[in-house]
Amino acid sequence: MAPFFFLLLLSLELACSYRHPLDPLTPSEISIVGSVIKISHFGSSKSLSFHYVGLDEPDKPEVLAWSLGHRRSKEKALPPRRAFVIARSEGKTHEIYVDIASRSVVSDEVYEGFGYPMLTFEEEEAASALPFGYPPFVASVRKRGLALEDVLCTPLSVGWFGEEKQGRRRVKIACYLTGDTVNFYARPLEGVTVVVDLDALAIVEYEDRVVVPVPESAGTDYRAAKQRPPFGPQTKPGAVVQPEGTGFEVDGHMIRWANWEFHLGYDVRAGTVISVASVKDSEVGTPRRVLYRGFVSELFIPYMDPSEEWYYKTFFDAGENGFGLSAAPLEPNADCPANAAFMDAHFAGQDGAPVRIPNALCVFERYAGDASWRHTEFGFPGQVITEVRPDVSLVVRMVSAVGNYDYVIDWEFKTSGSIKIGEASRRGLGAVAVRFGLMWRGPMVGSWKPEETKRVPLAAVAGSRSCTKVSLTGILEMKGTRYTHADQIAGDEHGTLLARNTIGVYHDHFVTFHLDLDVDGPANSFVRSKLKTVGVTDGSSRRRSYWTVAKETARTEADARVELGAEPGELLVVNPSKRTRMGNLVGYRVISHGATAASLLSDDDYPQIRASYSKNQVWVTAYNKSEKWAAGLYTDESRGDDNLAAWSRRNAGIEDTDIVLWYTAGFHHVPCQEDFPLMPLLSGGFELRPANFFERNPLIKTRPNGPVLLPNCSRNP
């Protein structure tokens, strides 16, 4: 009776906890799912491991019907809760659906295609430990005159390079020297290749091909305590203060702020998930939907060194490692400002038990010191008319530490109706490294207390850096070399000499977003407004030319593959059945803010086959609930037969129907010495901006904020 009683308690907890059909699985639900599978026919398995456990989200019409009914009646019943599970057992991959309420396995199918599920922390850690007990590796370390206790190893996905048959689940182990620095990525143990069979947890291939000098540790450590004079530029400290409290409401997973409301979720693969985002039109008085579902779908990071130790480094950070799986706990007053609210996340470990990530997400209002709109008029004699409204936005943030990358993902909601979507990533362990139990956290800001008050304009309060772009920072992936000066290099070393014996390898960053836009309803169309030069040849004007707009509505998926920058124009998603009072189609524009690189790899290169979608920055496909992951559901060792480009080849109709827009922010990165030992921010991004969605500027009637009482703060002793 004990197991049944345990499940009963979990069910009662479940009944009291979730409130929306798209809420992520709770710890209790994860426990139920794990228990149900373990007591099923998998009970006798000696190798059962859980690689993905997530919500099997209800069908979209069902969710939208529930949302409409819930607005009218708070007692609207929730759709049934189900989980989708990818598990490995006895060398096979299983796709399992579990009904949580009935605690039963609905279906179990063995996946027979190419590719494997995400790696788990547990198997990666176990694989990384294998070299230290492998005599040939120990001999290689000693041959280089290094101490084994100063060596640290990490697992890397191996990719696919033309093998016809599905092989073993493998990783390659990259090793580094630590010594007196935490920046071990700057000290690679070059020339050694270790291949591990993950199912057998055994080394199956080993090669020590060449001995290369290990770069010295001097000048590599980025920790503040390790720095010595002369120091860099110093600025004055700042603080975020909202005397009247935060302006947003967190109701379960629903967030309400100003004229926005949306559902905030978490997925072990995607990380942050924004759903049913609606903006309130003050003239209409009701919310109007903009985005049904949005999240990071994939990250493709190929390196440009074809040598034996580097050719395979073509990573898919979401599909291989799990973007949400690597979410790092956010540090108050460091990762997020003092006015932030935090939300925990939960995922299933390899054994199916729930694992908590504290402070995985944060939400805060940003006061950047900018204006949302302004005008000064000198046209009236003797008068100067000035009107300014401060720009305040709401930011949802997550940090994901994937190997030696840290990504800071921001979704920024503007009162103007815009959504800015961005990411800041640190290359390395500069902020958080959770993969092997290591954790570095920034110092907490000191405690503050009010002593007296001052009156200041609101625009001067709560200053916060604007970071609504796709940004890269942190530690580069570096390669050991015998060179100590650029003049010694005669051929192509596939990178830049950053320090003695240290090459920063050329590489790309492609971050692909899945954006199921529902602009004022699910039936939308994709429009390309091309800017065309028109010559004036009939003498009707003293001008010789002007430009005009030629609009083209994409009818099929092939019409909606866009290479940004190929020709001037605008990209819009419109609702063909909704018009403004002026007769314009209601829509949203997709605006790029830099980061528009596309892949330069040849079409027949194996990494490019797997990421064939990276040649175009924008794709539009017909909505399909199962098509979430741009590189396919099974990305590890995938072959490109189930990815965004493959789906688009069916050339389905996309006019006046439910569509999904895929946007890839891309960078080509040529490292330079300023990127060493830790690179400054490199930024780009994009924005979803209203285009005839409102009848006029929705902020014109926004009343200006008056001065606020600001405490005169002093640091506690």
Automatic annotation (TrEMBL):
Domain Copper amine oxidase catalytic as annotated: residue spans: 240-421, 469-699
Keyword Signal in annotation: yes
GO biological process: amine metabolic process
Cofactor(s) it depends on: Cu cation
UniProt cross-references to Gene3D superfamilies, sorted A to Z: 3.10.450.40, Copper amine oxidase, catalytic domain
InterPro entries: Cu_Am_Ox_Cu-bd, Cu_amine_oxidase, Cu_amine_oxidase_C, Cu_amine_oxidase_C_sf, Cu_amine_oxidase_N-reg, Cu_amine_oxidase_N2, Cu_amine_oxidase_N3
Cofactor info, note text: Contains 1 topaquinone per subunit.
Keywords in alphabetical order: Copper, Disulfide bond, Metal-binding, Oxidoreductase, Signal, TPQ
Uppermost EC category: oxidoreductase
One of the record's GO molecular function terms: quinone binding
Catalytic residues (positions): D317, Y405
EC number: 1.4.3.-
Modification comment: Topaquinone (TPQ) is generated by copper-dependent autoxidation of a specific tyrosyl residue.
Domain Copper amine oxidase N3-terminal: 117-214
Domain of life of the organism encoding this protein: Eukaryota
PROSITE patterns listed in its UniProt record: COPPER_AMINE_OXID_2
Modified residues (2',4',5'-topaquinone): Y405
Similarity comment: family membership: Belongs to the copper/topaquinone oxidase family.
Official protein name in the record: Amine oxidase
Native organism: Musa troglodytarum (fe'i banana)
